[in-house]
Amino acid sequence: MAFGISRHELNEWKSKCSQGKIAFLTHYWVEPRFPGVKTITKVGCCDLERLKEWCLTNGLNPAYIHFREEYPHYDLIGNKQIEILKKEHLTDHLLRFKLG
Fold first, then answer.
1. I need a surface site. Which of 57, 71, 73, 99 has the fewest CB within 10 A?
2. How many domains are there within the chain?
3. Strand 23-29's sheet: what is its strand order?
4. Which residues form the domain of 64?
């Protein structure tokens, strides 16, 4: 379950994804399979080849891209989430969700 974001932020992420841009959406998240994990960053892009290349460039396996929804995305959690947010200069995500 996602929470801590506005409809505007979600729609902005969807719009960027639809335009073939790499888009980042960080939100609070509760998933029993990952105890202690409180946030997730969805890295989305409707240009699947671009998203796969982004994954490979960042040392991530594109086999884990989610296709459950209209917007393909890769889920980042834990240390890798913090590493990538820093690499992408997404300081606002780090500060807002009190990460690293």
1. 57
2. 1
3. 2-3, 23-29, 39-44, 73-76
4. 2-96
